[in-house]
Write a structure and sequence with these properties.
Shape: globular
Number of strands: 11
Distance between the termini: 40 Å
Largest sheet: 7 strands, mixed
Strand content: over 45%
């Protein structure tokens, strides 16, 4: 059974950093394309970063390019999202995703599994 457990969220001031973790079970992260999504109150869930099966190539939303980095530790079966230079508009619930079905990676419907999420709040 696929399970994704996020951690590492919290409250920071503008310009701060956080590292989110996604511990996976029921599969190996190296065998799946993985992604991080976020959802702010009143907004749609949107993809912010993805790492692909195989060569481990990555994609980022324009809004986070140069500030966020997705990575994985195969030995720990964990995916990370390093977030630097955080801004108030980054405030959201962040979700780990697995089970890419193909199509536009930022579309929430193209990933089969999601974790429960971890809250990130950035104050000005």
């Amino acid at each position: 059974q696929v399970q994704l457990v996020e951690s590492g969220g919290g409250s920071v001031q503008t310009g701060g950093s956080l590292r989110l973790s996604c511990a996976a079970s029921g599969f190996t992260v190296s065998s799946r394309s993985m992604a991080w999504f976020r959802q702010a109150p009143g907004k749609e869930r949107e993809g912010v970063a993805a790492m692909y099966l195989g060569n481990g190539g990555t994609s980022y939303a324009d809004s986070v390019k140069g500030r966020f980095t997705i990575s994985r530790d195969n030995a720990k079966n964990t995916v990370y999202l390093q977030m630097n230079s955080l801004q108030p508009e980054d405030t959201a619930m962040y979700y780990c995703a697995a089970g890419y079905r193909g199509g536009v990676w930022r579309d929430r419907g193209n990933f089969e599994h999601y974790g429960q999420g971890t809250q990130v709040t950035v104050s000005s």
